[in-house]
Amino acid sequence: MSDTVRIDGVQLEVAPGTTILEAAKLAGRWVPTLCFDERQAPFGACRVCMVGVEGSANPLPACTTVCRDGMNVSTEDPTARRVAGAVVELVLSELPAAPAPHTELAQVAQRLQVGAELRWPGAVHAVDHDLEHPYLAFQHELCISCGRCVRACDEVQGAFALTAVGRGFDANVAAGLDGGFLHSSCVSCGACADTCPTDAITEQLLLVGGNGNSAVAAGV
Amino acid sequence: MTSERFTSTATTTCGYCGVGCRLEAHADHGRIVSIAPALDGPANEGHTCLKGRFAHQFTRSRDRLTSPLIREGKGLRVASWEEAYARIVSELTRIKSQHGPDAIAGLASSRATNEDCYAMARLMRAAIGTNNIDNCSRVCHSPTSFALRKSLGLSGATGSFTDIDHAEVAVLIGVNPTQGHPVVGARIKQAALRGTKLVTIDPRRIELADYGVLHLSPRPGTNAAVALGLCHVVQRDGLTDEQFIAQRTSGYEAVVELLEAYSPHAVQEITGIPAADIERAAHIYGEAASASILWGLGVTEHKYGSEVVQLLCNLALMTGKLGKPGSAMLPLRGQNNVQGSSDMGALPDTYTAYRSVADEAVAAQFEQAWGVPLSRQKGYTIPQMFDAAVAGKLKAMYIFGEDVAQSDPDTAHVVEALESLEFLVCQEIFENETTRYADVILPASAFLEKSGTFTNAERRFQRVEPAIDPPGGARTDFEIITTVSRMLGHEMGWQTPWDALDEIARLTPQYAGLSYERLGRHGLQWPVAADGTDSPTLYETRFETADGLGHFAALPYKAPGDAPDNEFQLVMVTGRVLQHYNAGTMTRRTHNLDLVDRDWLEIHPDDAARLWISDGDRVSVRSRVGQTQLYARVTPRIEPGHVFTSFHFPETRTNLLIGQSADVNTACPEYKVVAVDVRPMSEQPAFTPQLVSA
C-alpha cells in the first residue's frame, strides 16, 4: 500500500503516514525548516516549512502535514516562501546580533535571502548568559523558542530538565526552575546544544576555544 | 553541522562504553574542539552522552606520556624509542632463553581496537611463543561469554539494541544503563515512556526503576535464586513455550526437577524479595509476546556470575523468547571493545572467534599463516598471572591499556605480583598506579588518535578513524606492537590496521566478509558471511551449539563468596557513575571532574542513623582485606544493609577492599559482594589530601 504524490513535478510513491517534508527529502527537494529535527517528533511551531498544496487555499506546514494520495506539492510556492521569509525575518529582528554563520538559523536566512536588511527593527533581547556549567552555555538572548532543546531533553535523552518559559517577546527556555543547568536534572548529554539552531545553547568549549564567531566570544 | 569552525572532521566510534556511538569528531589545527553524534549511527541514532561528547580534553592533557621512559636505578628517565625497544627486546629475549616463553605474559586491552588486540595476541603467541595472553574482559564480562557459549553457542548478544524498541517487556538485571550505558539507558527510558514494561532487578533502586512497572531488590549475590524463582513460576503456571522447548532445546527435564525447590516463598527467604513480586515479575515476562533480558556486571561479577547468565538463558529458552524481534538477550558491555578484545583471541585459551588453542586444525592454520610453531597449552588468565608472578614462575609482563593496580581486585596482591616481576612493560597514555612498577613505559595513543575497529555490545564491528595525531613522541599501539614483534624476529607483514583486519577475516570463518570498505559508516554485526551479509539477530532457526539446540543448565543457587557477620555488617556493591569512566584516567582529566569530584559511599538512612553518619560525612570503610575512606551520601535508593560506591578515583582505591573471591568458571572477580564495616571518622587526619568541597 502506498500513496502517490507529486513534489515540484517529481512523482513518487510514499508509505502511508509519510509527511510532505519526508516526501520532499525523498524527492531531493529542499524545504526550509527551523523547529524540525529528525530525531524528534514533528512540532509544527515555526511555520518556516510552508509549502503550496494544490487545492489548499493557504500554504501548509510540510513537517506535520501527511501526504494524501494524489497530492500535488510545490515547495517553491511564492506565498509559502513569502510566509517563511517573513517568519525568519521576524525571528532575526528580535536578536541583538546576527546569528553566527554556522548556525542553522543563519543558513536558512541566507538561503531564503532575508536578514541582510531588517524591515521591522525594534526591541531586541537583552544579553543574558549562564556560563556556570562546565560544558553547556546558555545565551538566552539568542533563543527563538523553537522548542528543539526542550524536546531533545524530553524525547531523546529523557532528562526533562528544560522547560519553555515566558510569553510573547519574553518567551525563552529555562533549565530546572530557571536556576541553570547545574541546578536542574540535566545529565550534561548536550543533546540541547546539538539541536539548537541559534547557539542559544552551545558548548562552552566552542566559546572559549572557538574562532570568535559566537556572541560571547565576540563580546556582545 | 558543517562549518568552517573546524579544520577537519573524522567519523569514528566512541571509546568509552560498549554502546558504540558513532561520533563526528571535529578538530581545529590538531586539537579536538567539539564532538557531535553521527545522525546515522546505528547504536546511537544521533545521540551521545557527556563522556562521548565532552570528555575529550584528556587528549591534550599536560600529563600525557609523550616519550618512552625507562627505569634507571629507582627512577624513570626519558629515553628514545630505539633505546626503549632495545631494552624490551634484550630483556624479553633474556628471560625467554633463561626461563622459557611461558615466563612471559601479555595483556591486551578492551579499550583498544580489534587490530591492536589481535596484534598483541599474535605478539605473545608467535613472537614470544606462549598463550599467556588475556584482556580486561576477564574482570567484567567473561562470565557472560562463557555462559552464552554454553547455553546458546556464540559469545555475544542474541539481538540488537533495536530489540529494545520492539520489546513489550524488558527485564533489567544487575545493570544501571542510565549511568553506565547512557545512550542505551535513554533508549530504554523512551521505550518505557511509549509503553514498554520495565522490570528492574538490582540491590539499588536504579533510575529506570522509576519508569518501570516493578522493581525487585535482591540481596547482593542472590541473583541465581531470583532467576530460579522466575523460572519456577513460569513453569508452574504454564507460561512456557512447549513447542520451542521440544524442538529447539535439550536438558529441560533436569531443570523442571531442580525448579521445584525454588517456590516464590523459598526465593523470598534467600533474596529478600517478596514472593508476590517474584510471581508478578514472572507473569509480566512470561505473558509478554516479546521480551528482552538485559544485564551487566551486577550479574557477572559474582562467585557464580556465569551460572546466573546460564539461568537467565534458561528463562529465555523455556519461554521461546529468543531469535525474534523484541526477544533478545542483551549483555551491556562495560568497555568500548569488551566484545572485540575477546573475539580477537586475546585470551589464554582461544584464537579468534573462541576457537581453542588445543584445536589441532585451528592451530595448524595459524601456524601456517604466521610461519612459526604455536603452543597447544592453555596460558594464564589474569589472576593466574599474578599468582605465577608472586610464585616466581612468571618473570615478565607486557601490559597495554589496563591499570591493573587500580582496577583489579585485591590490590595488595597485584602490587606484590608487579614487584616480583623482573621486567614490566606498560604501554599507556598516562602514568598510572601500574606504571609505578614498570621498567619501560611506552607512550601510546587514545581512541581519537588511531584507526581500526571496535565491536560494540550488539556484535557490531565499527570503524575507528583518527581525528588527531598522537601527542609529541607518542605512537599508535598498532605501530608499537608490530615494531616490537619485528624486533623480536617475527614480522607481522602489515602496513596498517586494515591489513590486520584482512588477515582476521581470512583466518576466521565467522568474520569472513569483513573489510574496510564493507564496514562503511554503519559497521557489520558478526557473524559476517563471505559475501558480507551480517547478522543483527542470532538463532532464528538454530542455536550455534554442536547439536544446534539451546542447552538448559540445571544449576542450583549457591551462597556468594562473602557474607555479612558481626564484624562486617554491611554488604558493599561497587559500580560506575555517569560522569566518570572506570579508573578515571581519561574522565578525571576533563571538566567532568567539575561535575563529580570524588567517589561517594551510598548508605540507607536507617543504617546511617544507626551508625551516626550524616550526609557528607567522611567515613572509614573496612573489609576483610583492606580499608579506605569515603564521603557518605545518605539515600533511600539503596536497601538497608547494603552500601554502594564507585571506583573512579585513585584517592579511594576502592579495590583495596575486594578479596580474591571470583567466578567459579571464569575467574571474574566478585566485585559486587563485599562485607564491610562502615563507621564515621571523628576527625580528618592531616595527611589526607583534601578535595575541594562540592
Give an account of the 3D structure:
The complex is a heterodimer of chains A (220) and B (694). With 220 residues, chain A is α+β, with helices and mostly antiparallel strands. Chain A has two domains: 1-124, Ubiquitin-like (UB roll) (Roll); 129-209, Alpha-Beta Plaits, CATH 3.30.70.20. Chain A contains six helices and ten strands. In chain A, the strands form three sheets. Chain A has a five-stranded mixed beta sheet, sandwiched between helices. A three-stranded antiparallel beta sheet of chain A has the order 6-7-10. Residues 209-220 of chain A have low confidence and may be disordered. Chain B is α/β, with parallel strands linked by helices and 694 residues long. Chain B has three domains: 69-138 and 336-525, Rossmann fold (3-Layer(aba) Sandwich); 142-331, Dimethylsulfoxide Reductase, domain 2; 570-680, Barwin-like endoglucanases (Beta Barrel). In chain B, 31% of the residues lie in helices and 18% in strands. A seven-stranded mixed beta sheet of chain B has the order 5-4-18-17-16-6-7, with helices on both faces. Chain B has a six-stranded mixed beta barrel with strand order 23-27-24-26-25-28. In chain B, helix 3 links the parallel strand 6 and strand 7 (133-135). In chain B, helix 3 (114-128) runs parallel beside helix 20, helix 4 runs parallel beside helix 14 and helix 17 packs across helix 19 (411-420). The longest helix of chain B has 19 residues, at 81-99. The radius of gyration of chain B is 24 Å and the shape is globular. The mean pLDDT of chain B is 94. The chains are: A alpha+beta (220), B alpha/beta (694). Chains A and B meet through helix 4 and helix 6 of A and strand 3, helix 1, helix 7 and helix 23 of B.
